Amino acid sequence: MIDSVRFTKKGLVIIRPDRNGKDVFEEQVGADAVSLLRCTCEIEEGVTLADVMTEVKHRLSLTDLMRRYSWCRTIRVFHKALNKPFDKSRTSDLSHLLIEWNSHIAPDRNFVMWPTFVAVDGSGEKFGIDMHPLETYAWLPVRLNKALRIDNHESHGHFEVMTDFTLLDVLDALYWRISFHGGPKENAQFLEQLNATIAALKNSEPFEGTVH
């Protein structure tokens, strides 16, 4: 029985319990990891985004599945970008990358939850990172936050539960987010347009009047 898989600095491994169900031993995952997508997933301390993506890159079936499932049509372009030297100059203030749960209770009271992917700085503030070049943040370690916050909008209260991630949850959060605006080329274009818009707003005359 396979309880979980874990990303380590040595690669993606299967965690199997011993006969007593206490101690575990590790077994390297083979070429086909698709059958493990519903297994609970852990990430060892210090494992980077580049480490995780490299494990996917070396498995063609997993690469093709994530291309379709996460709408990451340019996944091979992202994988090729892993060969570029890391550029830490623009992200040196960041501490790590975080996969965490987000949730929503619809008006019809249906509950929806999904994994999200953000960057975190030294003070704990969170940022979107997807529009930046992969080489500027692939060097950062990836961590999991299993705490799922559920808000009760009727009572204005909330509670938290601890919820594991599957391998599919982890990979979907990463690949869906980094390709949200398209491939590396589209991300660069979006960032350039955004910076131009910000500059134009800063140089514009202050608006006086009433907005209707």
Would you give an account of this structure?
With 212 residues, the protein is an alpha+beta fold. The protein has one domain. It has helices spanning 49-57, 60-69, 75-81, 167-178, 184-203, and strands spanning 4-8, 11-17, 24-28, 40-43, 94-105, 111-121, 126-127, 142-145, 147-152, 157-162. Strands 3-2-1-4 form a four-stranded mixed β-sheet. A four-stranded mixed β-sheet has the order 7-6-5-8, with helices on one face. The mean pLDDT is 86.
Number of strands: 10
Biggest sheet, open or closed, and with what strands and sense? 4 strands, mixed
How would you classify the helix and strand content by structural class?
Answer: alpha+beta
Q: What is the CA–CA distance across the termini?
A: 63 Å
- In DSSP terms, counting alpha (H) and pi (I) runs of 4 or more, how many helices? 5
Q: What's the SSE blueprint?
A:
Elements: E1 4-8, E2 11-17, E3 24-28, E4 40-43, H1 49-57, H2 60-69, H3 75-81, E5 94-105, E6 111-121, E7 126-127, E8 142-145, E9 147-152, E10 157-162, H4 167-178, H5 184-203
Parallel strand pairs: 1-4, 5-8
Antiparallel strand pairs: 1-2, 2-3, 5-6, 6-7, 9-10
List keywords for this structure.
alpha+beta, four-stranded mixed beta sheet, 212 residues, 5 helices, single chain
Could you provide a short overview of the structure?
The chain is an alpha+beta fold.
